Amino acid sequence: MSEATVTLGESGGTTPDMGIDEVGARAAGIVQNVEAVIAGKREAVTASLTVLLAEGHLLIEDVPGVGKTMLAKALARSVDCTVSRIQFTPDLLPSDVTGVSVFDQANRRFEYKQGPVFANIVIGDEINRASPKTQSALLECMEERQVTADGTTYRLEQPFTVIATQNPVEMEGTYPLPEAQRDRFMARISMGYPASADELAMLAMRETGSPLEKLESVVTIAELRGMIEAVQRVFTSQPVKEYAVELARATRADRQLRLGASPRATLQLVRAAKAHAAMHGRDFVLPDDVDALAVPVLAHRLVPTSRAVGSHDRDSGPLIDAIVRRIVGETPVPVGSARRN
User: Fold this and answer.
1) Using one digit for the tens of pLDDT, what is the confidence trace for 238-276?
2) Which of 81, 134, 211, 226 could bridge 130 with an S-S bond, Cβ 3.0-4.6 Å?
3) Who's near 188: CB < 8 A, 6+ residues apart?
4) Rounded Cα gap, residues 107 and 139, in angstroms
């Protein structure tokens, strides 16, 4: 039996034709807007916007209380689009995420009720608290931008981005994300503890309330689509593509890793590099763009050997991050021009 396909209508008006300079200016406005809530975390804010413009999904992994969910909310509020939040819990069902067919007594037929995944930006709070069965409900959504239920495929409105948070320290009552799920996240970032000055500024900002309540959108959904289309037009030269491929292949052959980067990782590394270039006002990708995103895009997909884990000095930082940085340092940088001929 063939599946029916339902395409949901997109809202937001006509997509504007946007130049690279305008993309950079609007991206800077979004970053500034988010920083009104998240102070002193420019790198994390920029990385999250890079993923959004590259049409990827973001995993924010860090200890409790450092602003993971706040960052996701601030980014979502900066864009005038549909936003939903899913609080992942052990008793959450797949249908609570994607939707469920409900029998309509009046019409004597089943009607599909959309779940919270039908939004432009979906915030998944503490995703590792849900069971593997519920986590797997996101696999089709994140990769194919669609939901299949009762023989019907429902297309998700574009753009579609999942921003998930998880706590890597607390293990009781959690279900670690399987490799297939982690590989669907374009990037993983950590917030880290704030500097003393930033923590003092936070106390001053929140004496009378949360700055998130006053945050307003700075771009429309149509403008966001225009920015995404401009990112897609960013030129990537053959030498830069070969450089990204060599980085991924190096992870597969590295003696400290038992699982290297997938071909999906290579594709998403180039897409993220295009967004990074556009945010910096360039219509072409440099090897520096690839280098800047190698750790957030590749590290969470890699699995170290037990021997590498046993010999790692924890004071030197996360093992996987160190391995990726070493691979980047050992991989020859292309000499060919990155510009469009």
Assistant:
1) 999 999 999 999 999 999 999 999 999 999 999 999 999
2) 134
3) 58, 59, 60, 61, 182, 296, 299, 300
4) 33
Instruction: Name the pairing type of β-strands 161-166 and 58-61.
Output: parallel
- Cis previous bond, 159, omega within 30: yes
The Cα 204–Cα 194 span in angstroms is: 14
Q: What is the pLDDT of residues 150-194, one digit of tens each?
A: 788 899 999 999 999 998 876 666 888 888 889 999 999 999 898
300 φψ region: left (φ > 0), alpha (ψ -120 to 50), beta (else): alpha
Residue 230: other Cβ atoms inside 10 A: 24
* Bridge partners, residue 103, by sequence: 110
- State residue 121 phi and psi, 5-degree precision: -125, 120
Query: Domains of the chain (ranges plus CATH)?
Result: 13-233 (3.40.50.300), 234-341 (1.10.8.80)
The amino acid at residue 341 is: N
Distance CA 62, CA 220 (A): 30
pLDDT tier, 34 (very low <50, low <70, confident <90, very high otherwise)? very high
Task: Report DSSP letters for 288-323, one per residue.
Answer: HHHHHHHHHHHGGG-EE-HHHHHH--GGG--HHHHH
Q: List all residues 6 or more positions away from 175 whose beta carbon is below 8 Å from its beta carbon.
A: 128, 129, 130, 131, 132, 135
Give CA–CA dist 279/113, Å, rounded: 38
